[in-house]
Design brief:
With 151 residues, this protein is of the alpha/beta class. It is built from six helices and five strands; from the N terminus they run βαβαβαβαβαα.
Length: 151
């Protein structure tokens, strides 16, 4: 059984899709102060935390990072209106396991199952950016080889 926790203001479609699935237990948390929401998430201990920042003041990036710090086993999926980029992933402390555009929310069940199986739900563009950044950091951290003249 996959435990999913859903937070957001415009979440009726996601809620209906997730409730209709066997093998998924859904909990929703009413919008409240960040501390109250974090306490509720930690009490539920979901496998997947779904945060929708569409049309709300929900600090999804902050909430994601703080949820990870309190319970690192929770995987977070953020539903957003703008495509995620490296800076947004960095704001979550690299703890977010998935980003989904609001227009793609019809695939919420598939995303939850993929993430539950241990994979990320990220756009190919974001994955490429992350890999490029990692390669760049690794290359700049290595000392350059020096030519040795042995005579």
């Amino acid at each position: 059984m996959i435990k999913v926790c859903l937070i957001g203001e415009d979440i009726a479609k996601e809620k209906a899709l997730l409730e209709s699935q066997s093998g998924i237990t859904l909990h929703t948390i009413a919008m409240a102060d960040t501390e109250v929401m974090l306490k509720a998430v930690c009490d539920i201990r979901p496998d997947i935390l779904v945060l929708s920042d569409v049309g709300s003041r929900l600090p999804a990036d902050e909430l994601c990072m703080h949820a990870y710090l309190r319970a690192p086993d929770i995987k977070t999926l953020i539903i957003t209106e703008d495509e995620a980029d490296y800076a947004r992933l960095e704001k979550t402390g690299f703890s977010c396991k998935g980003f989904m555009l609001h227009q793609q929310r019809h695939a919420i069940v598939r995303a939850v199952r993929v993430m539950y199986d241990g994979e990320a739900w990220l756009s190919r563009k974001l994955v490429t950016t992350v890999l490029d950044q990692l390669a760049s950091n690794a290359t700049s951290a290595k000392p350059r080889p020096q030519l040795v003249n042995k005579r």
